[in-house]
Write a structure and sequence with these properties.
By secondary structure, the chain is of the alpha/beta class. It has one domain: 3-Layer(aba) Sandwich (Rossmann fold). 34% of the residues lie in helices and 23% in strands. It has 6 helices and 7 strands. A 7-stranded mixed beta sheet has the order 3-2-1-4-5-7-6, sandwiched between helices. The longest helix is centred in the last third of the chain and has 28 residues. It is globular and about 45 Å long. It starts with 9 loop residues before the first helix and ends with a strand. It binds S-adenosylmethionine (SAM). S-adenosylmethionine binds next to strand 2. The site of S-adenosylmethionine has 22 residues, from strand 2. This is Methyltransferase family protein.
Length: 203
Amino acid sequence: MPFDHNDFYHPLLLRLVPAGARRALDVGCGTGRLARRLAARGLEVDALDPAAEVLEVAKALGSPGPGAITYRHADITTYPLSSSRYDVVTCVASLHHVPFQTVTRLRDALAPGGVLAVLGLADPSTVRDHAVWLGSVPTNLLAKAVVAAAERLGGGADPVPRAPIRDWDMTLNDVRREAARLLPGSRVRVLPFWRYLLTYRRA
Ligand SMILES: C[S@@+](CC[C@H](N)C(=O)[O-])C[C@H]1O[C@@H](n2cnc3c(N)ncnc32)[C@H](O)[C@@H]1O
């Protein structure tokens, strides 16, 4: 696998899982890499994606345990989510595939004290956003070179289907404004590697 800007943030996302959490929802799970890490932490995971080809790969890989993973071939905008069910809801590079207001469905699916963590993509707005973006260029080149060298040494991995991607149409200021409106108390942080982190904890 080449260096993956989304997987790089899995440890950060795992640190956001509330203590004692039991149930997780991963939205747009792709081949299930984050779902497996959540299950390895002992969570029962519902992992949802409308792309059948990547979901098949995820299902074939199953769960490393101790938590179970239930994969659902579904669209988050229409899937009937139970309210107040999940201790953590994650969206990795998937929120821009759906209308931003979908976050209200995810918010309602959080149990009290539950955390929504969105690793998202949007265009930079402020000078700081641009500076973080620009600073990502040399780090990215270095990370890619290190991972490519490690792959050559290790003989490389079998190719897997890539999860569907699409362009985003929001700026970071759009995200900040909509997050403040729909998820009062949420926080939006700009991150290296052209990502942002939106976090929201349900009271
Ligand atoms: C860029 S991929 C990211 C996949 C995975 N989270 C990862 O980090 O590898 C975006 C994913 O969002 C999924 N997606 C697109 N529309 C969706 C929807 N309406 N509901 C849920 N997931 C969706 C895509 O099928 C794709 O797997």
